[in-house]
Amino acid sequence: MLELFPANQTTRGTSAEILSVEEILARRQNFLLNMPLPRPVRLGKSGRYLPWVVYGALVVYVIFTFRTFLPVLRNSELATSTQSWLTLIELAGIAIFCWAMFHGRSGEKDLLSNGAVAAANIKHQFNDAGSGQSFVDYEFSDSHGHVWEKRTPDTFGGYSTGMTVVVFYDVDHPERQMADCSTQYYEIVLPDEK
Known about the structure:
Helix content is about 40%, strand content about 25%.
């Protein structure tokens, strides 16, 4: 990916120039808006590590649940039907969570690779004091002329009110949309990174 805050970049090996955040984001947006389909995508850092951390925590949780709520495994009295149902409900919840996580990853990859693109105007940017996360409210028009508004985290941290951000969306279901600054798992391989 293009660095958001490079110390300097060399142009044609002769002169060094310092690019502002706005210039870097503008270059990135220009690439994203003009890339042919399918766009090349790869797993980002969080996409490589986050699922394994979550799955590891879930495995520990399942082991703890079985040890705590199923007395049969502790060689004590038989489990009551209430304990069995609670355990089954928890395990079903974990299974649904894992399915949703996989589905979210594949949905994100599909939107980034094959989704329609639009330039969205950032209407508002704010920082959440509790989480330390930056958020943006953006607005864009889809190919049918419908205007969509959404709030999303700004994982780049370089956007502000009045700037534009690239949005990937499903033409048939534009409510399925993702701003480039809020991707969690995948990232698009830009032409200068190949």
